[in-house]
Amino acid sequence: MSLLSSPAIMDQLQEVEIPFAPGVIESLRAGDLISLTGTLFTGRDQTHRRMMALLDEGADLPVKLAGQLLYYVGPSPARPGQVIGAAGPTTSYRMDVYTPRLFELGLKATMGKGSRSLPVREAMVRHQAVYLAAFGGAGALLSKCIVAAEVVAFADAGPEALYRFVVLRFPAVVINDVHGRDYYEMVKAGSGASR
Amino acid sequence: MREIAAALVTEAVKKMTMEAGVRLEPDILAGLAQARDRETSSLAKNILDLLLVNADIAGREKIPVCQDTGVAVVFIELGQEVRIRGELGEAVQQGVQAGYQDGYLRKSVCDPITRVNTGTNTPAVLHVELVPGDKLKISVLPKGCGSENMSGLTMLPPSAGIGGMQDFVVRQAVNAGPNPCPPLLIGVGMGGTFEKAALLAKKALIRPLGQPHPRADVAALEAEILTRINEQGQGVQGLGGNNTALAVHIDLFPSHIASLPVAVNIQCHAHRHKEIVL
């Protein structure tokens, strides 16, 4: 982990374990810099389409999303000896149409990059869920924070498969908290850039 | 006639594709370092540092700079005195396929209707232009689509003028917000026709970062638009600061007297490009 100690930002992060312990989600505030340690699931466009198709058929999802964090990422292939290739966030708005339905199943957090739609933001308040931004375009560095990766479903979708990642001090910014605040909006309004 | 074997083109494209995926060019590294030095937000400064560390890890360990290793856009300037022994288009596609496979780059190309991945990252988008001379110039631009999706084109009436053009470019960059991974490179195509403007905007991206347009009035426009975008304060990753964009590159082509096409092609900070002259 010595590589990661070099950017100063890595020393300013509030440690958070995932899945979240009771009370932790509620304590997060828009603009908090955090580092995640624990397990999460991944999914992007096709992963979501397939999950929706399963739900439409009345079938169970291949994993239980209740209490979990879903990371929007399509990793590049691992070289021999690597856990995973580059694994930074993809743009989140493409998942907006699917996200409220996953909150209904108990999903507690999503992570990607970029703004969420108003319906997703409202659903987050309703379901007491949060949205995190990972650092876009830092896929090589972020791959170093992933200590284990396995495909758990949709293997034929390649980079759009559903993975389980074990992460260690994976950096992120809280964008939407359970109180309805949106850090991107705060920045636009001039109240976010005080760091 | 000078003869070039198609196999040579395949080899060059493969090598450039593999290299571009994991190594940022000196111009973009310098651009990121300069942005860090003039950055006013300490959070953004820290993130710019992190992006430079990311580039360093990528280059040393051959891990892609970004997992979105893009759709391969290939520009070829083919000298009219060059004869390709073999099939040029096929040679390029084979080079892209081999580069993505052997370079452990992500295959991100799919059928637009079924969304089934082609599994090879081909077809690449290939633009061939005939030019005088006996050289073959190949530029490879692996284009990530988080930024590509934020691009846009408008057919302005000539009465909208330079002001209308500027407003459109600024709006396009600012409305994209954090989605395309700022700090951005903004390619602008002005004039021509519908498709010409889009192509100019894309090709403007492969100019060395921050190198002003040779025409003084165009260079002044580039600087003015860059200032306007950065004054909006969205900053690196949309988290605030004065570096929403690193540069604005404008390319021009004469247009119809009734028309002022303006295309904006947005590029992320993980701007990867390579070129070679054979």
List the helices and strands and how they pair.
The complex is a heterodimer of chains A (195) and B (278).
Chain A (H helix, E strand, L loop, with lengths): L1 H4 L8 E5 L5 H4 L5 E10 L2 H12 L12 E3 L27 H6 L4 E4 L5 H10 L2 E4 L5 H5 L2 E8 L8 E15 L6 H6 L7
Parallel strand pairs in A: 1-2, 2-3, 3-4, 4-5
Antiparallel strand pairs in A: 2-7, 5-7, 6-7
Chain B lengths: L1 E4 H17 L3 H13 L3 H20 L9 E9 L2 E4 L2 H15 L22 E7 L4 E8 L1 H4 L3 E5 L4 H15 L8 E8 L2 H11 L11 H16 L13 E9 L6 E8 L6 E4 L1
Parallel strand pairs in B: 1-3, 2-4, 7-8
Antiparallel strand pairs in B: 2-5, 5-10, 6-9, 7-9
Helix pairs in contact in B: 1-4, 2-3, 6-8
Short description:
With 195 residues, chain A is α/β, with parallel strands linked by helices. Chain A has seven helices and seven strands. In chain A, helix 3 links the parallel strand 2 and strand 3.
Regarding quaternary structure, what we see is: heterodimer
Helix percentage of chain B: 25-40%
CATH T-level fold name of chain A: fumarase
Task: Report strand order across the widest sheet of chain A.
Answer: 2-3-4-5-7
Terminal Cα span of chain B: 14 Å
What class, by secondary structure content of chain A?
alpha/beta
List the domain count of chain B as a whole number.
2
CATH architecture of chain A: Alpha-Beta Barrel
CATH structural class of chain A: Alpha Beta
- Most residues in contact: chain pair: A-B, 54 and 49 residues
Order of helices and strands of chain B: EHHHEEHEEHEHEHHEEE
Shape by Cα distribution of chain A: globular
Number of helices of chain B: 8
Trace the largest sheet of chain B across and list its strands: 4-2-5-10
SSE order of chain A: HEHEHEHEHEHEEH
The class by helix and strand makeup of chain B works out as alpha/beta
- Distance linking N and C termini of chain A: 25 Å
CATH T-level topology of the largest domain in chain B: 60s Ribosomal Protein L30, Chain: A
